[in-house]
Amino acid sequence: MAESEKNFRVLSPPAGSAFSPEHLQYLRRWKRDRILITVTRWAILLILVLGWEALARLEWINTFVTSQPSRVWGVIVQMYSSGELWYHLGVTVGETIAGFVLGTLGGVLIAILLWWSPFWSRTAEPFIVVINSIPKVALGPIFIVWLGTNIQAIVAMAITVSIIVTVLMVFTGFQEVDENKIKLLRTFGATKAQVLTKVVLPATIPTIVGAVKVNVGLSLVGTIVGEFLVAKAGLGFLIVYGGQVFNMSLVMAGVILLMLVSTLLYYVVTRLEAAAQMSRAR
User: Fold this and answer.
1) Which domains does the chain possess?
2) For residue 75, what are the contacts with CB-CB under 8 A and spacing of at least 6?
3) CB–CB of 99/136 below 8 Å?
4) What's the mean per-residue pLDDT of the chain?
């Protein structure tokens, strides 16, 4: 559920209730602004696409370098007809989901272990900072040597990109939990596991959700980087292959499909977040 939809549900009074003129005016203005924003977004996108196509047809830009929307669409239709489209999309999405799930779960688990042991959290802090500062692309050749030129190396790249960010975000969220609540539970004799499950984790759910949203994009970035290096299928492979044979229409098609996949994955995570919030509200 989009943020605006959640706000609308909060703002809308229950059926049969009295509407004040001011409230009705505010809702109408809010709905009008929402429609205007949506229309403006689509208008900007349409202008960009049509402008790109017009510049290409007028030969004001070099289509060998930039391609044009009609050619890109033709490539996508051709891949769809041959069945390659769903194959390459499935490879990239599957690798991204694997890296996303493993990276997120692994990051949350490491953050819990660091919170559980202050000694190891202080010990590991400089190592985490150093690992986070390393460009993850530099680790690609290492994974290729260790794991081979296969899907494992690509998933490892996706995990590496997302796991450290998860650790930093979630562990920081753990540290910001109200100490008074933790002291209260300990006063009543709560164990460390009870403190974790009853206070720390519930209080950090917004941070974990934020980490999940970030990890969707990061996992996709890691997957594409891995596909650039070793893949024989996937959107990253299409982009690299298109560049090697100077087929910019194929490159642009891969980039556009990548944008659509990123948007879809983010939308799915947002919907899951909204469903979790509704379940907690009940």
Assistant:
1) 3-61 (no CATH), 70-281 (1.10.3720.10)
2) 249, 250, 253
3) no
4) 84
